[in-house]
Design goal:
0% strand; 220 residues; single chain
Length: 220
């Protein structure tokens, strides 16, 4: 009974974390499409791609191990899961440091330098995507034209800051949600693995008892 319940819960939670891993991959793709031109953001995008891919892989491994009742798969799954939790904590700390220090005047200075060295076509394309104009001041050759009677567009510095902060909130929420699920998965994985071991031993003992009874049965 407990084994069946553990299997059901583990399969359900692994399915959820698999969906979250796919969501992180999609979020990384979205950030890549909107802010991929910025070198300062690329490390975070690569980390998010890697995190989403690993979460999806580990969740799929756990799901397969649970359905097939494979103790070896569950052992590998638990090992990967513990390593993944440690990696996520490191990622979360790095992200917090990024939010508190990288979004500073020095970072904006770097981004402004990259913005000014873009070709006119690339800069106008970025301004059109972000619906902004200029980096710190509005320029006359802006790639985004606001609707008639609309207020002046925000500068790209403001837009980029808002987008990065908003996406970081999404990322942190997703990472800590996944970490909470994974702690539960480690507990359930270890419990299920021990139960499967006990069931295997019990089955082996029954086979030995049956063989002993057969051997000790009086011959007619």
């Amino acid at each position: 009974m407990c084994t069946t319940a553990a299997k059901g819960i583990l399969a359900m939670v692994n399915s959820l974390t698999l969906l979250i891993g796919v969501f992180l991959l999609g979020l990384a793709g979205y950030i890549h499409m909107t802010l991929g031109l910025w070198v300062s953001i690329r490390a975070m995008i690569i980390g998010l791609y890697a995190l989403g891919g690993v979460i999806s892989f580990v969740s799929l491994l756990g799901l397969c191990g649970t359905v097939s009742s494979s103790r070896n798969s569950l052992r590998i799954y638990n090992t990967f899961l513990i390593l993944l939790i440690v990696a996520q904590i490191g990622f979360a700390i790095t992200a917090l440091v990024f939010m508190s220090t990288e979004m500073s005047a020095e970072m904006h200075k770097t981004l402004e330098g990259q913005f000014n060295t873009m070709t006119l076509l690339d800069r106008q394309s970025l301004e059109s995507q972000l619906m902004c104009c200029g980096y710190e001041t509005i320029t006359t050759d802006c790639g985004y034209v606001p609707p008639v009677n609309a207020p002046l567009p925000a500068t790209c510095k403001v837009k980029i800051s808002n987008i990065v902060k908003l996406n970081m909130k999404y990322i942190m929420t997703a990472v800590f949600s996944v970490a909470a699920f994974e702690i539960l998965l480690v507990i359930l994985g270890c419990f299920l693995s021990s139960k499967l071991k006990a069931e295997k031993k019990e089955k082996f003992d029954r086979v030995l008892i049956n063989e002993a009874r057969t051997l000790n049965r009086p011959k007619v």
